[in-house]
């Protein structure tokens, strides 16, 4: 049975070798780096105790350094399931929802046709490259120079020029013996509706070859040199080679760069991708004239767990971000998400890189917003919530968004994050009373646009400080890592860069020098930013490197405080919901009291350097004033609801 190459291309694009192999092996988490698709396990084909079986999920191949077994997903299924080639293909196709084509005697003919078409496209690349050197392309060369593209860069990206004539390309390629019907099938010419000779699709345009993940030219994008042209950018029509909904510009090189740890960036156009790559951001791609599609999103998640969508910071950019969120929500799964960067002042990546350099772009990528912030901004920006109905409408809008998330655990985390943001928005303002103490003012209805913006809301800084102390203690005294691996895996990190550092700590060898290992994964600035914070540097466990006992005591204390604080926060959020739903009773009061007692026992608060922001609790533990105020307000509201006079 002969299957068309296009089928195998699609099957490979949908498959994850790590998932296929993961059903048969137990990964060695210390040796593996799942974020980079670099996975190790004991070999399923021979008996061994060490993890010598290597899976490269980015490239889709496995190799055992012990028995030298090697292959792809199809060969793995053949060997482990004891089936033939076609049966293995059917098993894998069924898992990814792909229909196996029926036996077709024309399959080989179609494969030969695709080969001929790719040959034609490569001839077109050569033609356009030559035309860029002619006098007719002077304005095009000047434009590329103004955009900062050197001749070396133009050569790397194989940029060319389509002259203004109607049949320049077709005349040249026909002169090389290429049949007119092949030019038409490749999308390079178009038949005249006036009975004349077919004419070139691309005329007077700068030409960008569009290649598939294997590097074969399958289409072109053309940038018009005439400002009055109806289409500033024009892509090839869809052909047997080119489906724009499944294609990403720069897919192959970006996949390779992302596999080496570069951030995967989704930009809006060819020039943005080229500018990013030329400035060191090699894992940059772009959709082709349309919004991101489901197929493209699946490709992105094969390359990286959290691609960054980089958009112009104008109204169109915000609208595009929200469309991507709508597409992604039903496809989300634990560990797979998106982050968003809205560039300032309506700039695109090319503008920003020219004005401020790669460091500015890297900073924006580091500060990219998670999807939950985009959802929050869409629901709240420039809106007032000065009535119960408007607040209820906000609840409804947010719940409709999160209801689209199929995974229950992930949906719960989204709901928790949005509840926290609602509390930040609506928490009562508190002003000093005469004679001391605080009084409760009217709850806020709508905070300023800054408060509602994606960059202004988030988790309380104290959580970030505790996370930093925990991570710094592991870095300073890595010998305690094996004793706290379970706690480290379960802890949710929200501080800037903390999740990436925790992931690195889980996948390094603590018995060797860990700093070079971390710097190799995250860069030299990751540890410097962590350890330079005053609160972290003054922690006894950090001041005494290698003191295992001090490190254990510090970690046990900080983990208890952090978990107690987050548990107390969840209880208060649930109590607020119970009050809003009219369910407040003695059980809610008891839960709050118990949670508060746990928090007090854990000793919530920070060190003496931060006393200005914390007050002393009944047992001597420092408690955040905002947390204590919120706690007192909730108890007061519950007691009010339970008044015997029935007042409401």
From TrEMBL:
E.C. number(s) listed in UniProt: 2.7.7.101
Cofactor(s) listed in the protein's UniProt record: Zn(2+)
Co-factor remark: Binds 1 zinc ion per monomer.
Zinc finger (CHC2-type): 43-67
Self-association and partners: Monomer. Interacts with DnaB.
Homology family: Belongs to the DnaG primase family.
Protein's name according to its UniProt entry: DNA primase
Gene this protein is translated from: dnaG
């Amino acid at each position: 049975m002969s299957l068309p190459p296009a089928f195998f291309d699609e099957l490979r694009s949908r498959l994850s070798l790590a998932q296929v192999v993961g059903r048969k092996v137990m990964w060695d988490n210390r040796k593996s780096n799942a974020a980079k698709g670099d996975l190790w396990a004991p070999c399923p084909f021979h008996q061994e105790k060490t993890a010598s079986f290597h899976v490269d999920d980015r490239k889709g191949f496995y190799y055992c350094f012990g028995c030298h077994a090697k292959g792809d997903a199809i060969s793995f299924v053949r060997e482990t399931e004891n089936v033939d080639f076609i049966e293995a293909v059917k098993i894998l196709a069924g898992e990814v929802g792909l229909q196996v084509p029926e036996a077709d005697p024309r399959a080989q003919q179609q494969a030969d046709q695709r080969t001929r078409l790719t040959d034609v496209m490569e001839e077109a690349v050569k033609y356009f490259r030559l035309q860029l050197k002619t006098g007719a392309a002077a304005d095009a060369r000047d434009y590329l120079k103004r955009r900062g593209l050197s001749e070396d860069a133009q050569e790397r990206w194989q940029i060319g020029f389509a002259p203004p004539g109607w049949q320049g390309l077709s005349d040249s390629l026909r002169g090389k013996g290429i049949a007119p019907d092949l030019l038409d099938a490749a999308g390079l010419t178009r038949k005249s509706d006036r009975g004349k000779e077919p004419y070139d699709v691309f005329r007077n345009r700068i030409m960008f070859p569009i290649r598939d993940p294997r590097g074969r030219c399958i289409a072109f994008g053309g940038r018009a040199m005439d400002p009055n042209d109806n289409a500033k950018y024009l892509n090839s029509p869809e052909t047997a080679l080119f489906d724009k909904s499944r294609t990403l510009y720069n897919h192959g090189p970006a996949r390779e760069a992302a596999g080496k740890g570069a951030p995967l960036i989704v930009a809006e156009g060819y020039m943005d991708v080229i500018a990013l790559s030329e400035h060191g951001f090699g894992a940059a791609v772009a959709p082709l004239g349309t919004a991101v599609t489901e197929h493209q999103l699946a490709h992105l998640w094969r390359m990286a767990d959290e691609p960054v969508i980089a958009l112009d910071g104008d109204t169109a950019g915000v609208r595009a971000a929200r469309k991507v969120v709508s597409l992604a929500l039903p496809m989300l799964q634990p560990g797979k998400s998106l982050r968003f960067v809205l560039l300032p002042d309506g700039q695109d990546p090319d503008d920003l890189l020219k004005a401020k350099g790669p460091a500015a772009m890297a900073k924006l990528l580091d500060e990219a917003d998670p999807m939950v912030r985009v959802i929050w901004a869409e629901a709240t920006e420039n809106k007032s919530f000065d009535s119960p109905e408007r607040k209820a409408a906000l609840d409804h809008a947010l719940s409709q968004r999160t209801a689209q998330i199929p995974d229950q655990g992930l949906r719960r985390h989204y709901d928790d994050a949005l509840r926290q943001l609602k509390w930040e928005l609506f928490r009562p303002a508190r002003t000093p009373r005469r004679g001391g103490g605080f009084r409760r003012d009217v709850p806020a209805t709508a905070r300023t646009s800054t408060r509602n913006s994606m960059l202004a809301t988030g988790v309380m800084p104290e959580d970030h400080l505790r996370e930093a102390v925990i991570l710094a203690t592991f870095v300073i005294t890595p010998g305690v890592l094996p004793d706290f691996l379970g706690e480290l895996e379960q802890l949710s990190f929200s501080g800037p860069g903390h999740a990436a550092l925790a992931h690195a700590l889980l996948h390094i060898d603590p018995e060797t020098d860990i700093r070079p290992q971390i710097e190799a994964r995250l860069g030299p600035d990751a540890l410097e930013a962590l350890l330079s914070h005053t609160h972290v540097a003054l922690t006894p466990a950090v001041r005494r490197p290698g003191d295992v006992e001090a490190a254990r005591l510090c970690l046990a204390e900080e983990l208890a405080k952090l978990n107690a604080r987050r548990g107390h926060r969840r209880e208060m959020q649930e109590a607020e919901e119970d009050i809003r739903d009219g369910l407040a009773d003695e059980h809610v009061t008891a839960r709050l009291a118990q949670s508060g007692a746990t928090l007090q026992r854990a000793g919530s608060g920070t060190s003496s350097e931060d006393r200005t922001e914390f007050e002393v609790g009944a047992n001597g533990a420092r408690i955040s004033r905002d947390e204590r105020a919120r706690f007192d307000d909730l108890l007061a509201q519950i007691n009010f609801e339970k008044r015997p006079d029935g007042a409401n």
